[in-house]
Sequence to fold (313 residues):
Amino acid sequence: MKLTTRTVLGWLAGAVAAIAFVAVMGNLAIRPAEQALRAHAEQPAGLVDVLFYVLAALTLLGAAGVALSRNILYSAIGLLAALMGAGSLYVFLSADFLAITQLLVYIGGVLVLLLFAVMLTNRITEINVSNASLGLAGGLVLALAVAPVLLAVATVTPWAVTEPAVVNHTAAEIGDGFLTRWLLPFEIASMVLLATLVGSVVIARKEIKAD
Amino acid sequence: MQVGLPHFLVIGALLFTAGLVTVATRRNAVGVLMGIELILNGANVNFAAFNHYVVGGISGQVFALFVIVLAAAEAAVGLAIVLAMYQTFKTIDVRSADVLRE
Fold:
């Protein structure tokens, strides 16, 4: 990309717009978010909360590893940490069946499939910081544009927390639900999996050249 | 500080943002698919959190289970496409897929 006056002015305008957006969002969103969190912070913390913070840190470190690491295999290990951390957070939310399903299907299925694809396509190291397209600076701008909005919504909004009764036998209730209330989505999901099986085999096989 | 609903929503939001940055900046096609899995996990954490703190019952967990099923299906098809792309272009750099036919 040639360094013309137009490209320099374009990047300068983009940078000014990004900085202005971050400053406006900081004033509008982060200050009331801090006040809301300070109002929430009056209850004392226990051991369960310390454990929550440790698992949350593990999850977010894994996610940052996926986004920022140069080696695709390090990204896969980061994804493993993020998925396991999310699974452990489901246990905090009394969703034990969901946590075990996450472990079996996501880590045991999807992550292994991703590793298969990495090994079969044989590109282990890559430089994901480029000066032509959206590099590390572009990723940072995107993160600064999206994250404050979502974080402000998460912390400032007065959610109607009701503390409902904890379901004890989640697997039994989920099984009952799949066969009574959510029967149609269950059957359609089975059809989707069948189509996925057939379709992925058809797409990925090698072409048979007609002689 | 005692853990409440906003904590889980913050984690969901940060997972979503990390996945979005991964999808936008990665040049490896498998890396892009890893970002999509992060985005879906952020949404799942949100579903489970609202199910526990606001709604009750198991409807949020069932929705999250369907999200996991569909994420697995989409990862399978996406990786089949990546393999087909590798057979055609001999690379999985996403910038190399710029022709409409071989």
In short: The mean pLDDT of chain B is 91. Residues 59-89 of chain B form the longest helix (31 residues). The radius of gyration of chain B is 17 Å.
